[in-house]
Specification:
The protein is of the alpha/beta class. It is built from 9 helices and 8 strands. It has an 8-stranded parallel barrel, surrounded by 5 helices. Helix 1 packs parallel to helix 9.
Length: about 240
């Protein structure tokens, strides 16, 4: 069971999203860019955007490191990502979010560990690409051994938490390390929260749920975030 208030992470795209996220009770911001095609997923934002969000935020900002739609990367890209990360940290970011798979759809521990080494001491989370790993149990073991990782965002399935919740609960119930690292996100619903909290999960991620119409075309709304903040805190209190 959780013994501290659940951590609530909210995706933001720019500084205009910050008041709603922070005002609603977010503990951490996950900053990404959705400038590309929607099917390609989020990528790294411009350093100027990071600077604006960090200046506006009273809570830590973790910034996505992802240059294209693939879950893999190359040595050349790794150098670019490290440079981008240093720009983000210089602009005020508290951490980053990244994650890479190899050609066999396993966690690319070599690349992830190397980037973590290049950013020595910087906390990071493994982003939603984790759910594309072919062998989830092995993936959890591999990620747990990486330096600096403080969270792994997962829905238990690339199809979303409604499809993956049973497997996710089985994993975290059997593995305290996975429970500690899991940032539950990817179609999170209110009904999932009590089950995840009872299994020891203490970190939760929200994306479209915080926006009117559940679309990234609208700004993060404080009332939407606050409803989740109250839900998490109330459920955690009941479990205690």
């Amino acid at each position: 069971m959780t013994t501290v208030p659940p951590l609530l992470e909210v995706t933001v795209l720019h500084e205009r999203d910050v008041p709603g996220a922070v005002g609603g009770g977010a503990d951490r911001l996950h900053l990404v860019s959705h400038a590309g095609a929607p099917e390609d997923g989020p990528t790294s934002p411009e350093p100027a955007t990071v600077s604006g969000v960090c200046r506006a935020s009273e809570v830590p900002v973790f910034v996505l490191l992802r240059l294209n739609s693939s879950w893999t990367t190359t040595g050349g890209e790794l150098t670019r990502l490290a440079g981008l990360a240093h720009d983000y940290l210089g602009a005020g970011a508290a951490g980053v979010s990244f994650g890479f798979l190899d050609v066999d759809l396993g966690i690319d521990t070599g690349v992830c560990a190397e980037l973590a080494r290049m950013l020595r001491g910087v906390p990071w989370t493994f982003h939603r690409g984790f759910d594309a790993a072919l062998e989830p149990q092995r993936a959890w073991r591999d990620v747990a051994g990486l330096p600096g990782v403080v969270g792994v965002r997962s829905a238990g399935s690339l199809r979303g938490m409604d499809s993956g919740i049973d497997e996710l609960l089985a994993t975290v119930s059997a593995d305290p390390v996975a429970a500690r690292l899991l940032v539950a996100g990817g179609g999170l619903l209110a009904e999932h929260v009590p089950w995840l909290l009872r299994a020891g999960v203490g970190q939760f991620h929200l994306g479209r749920q915080t926006r009117p119409g559940a679309t990234y075309r609208s700004y993060v709304d404080a009332a939407h975030v606050r409803s989740w903040r109250l839900l998490l805190d109330d459920a955690a209190e009941r479990i205690r």
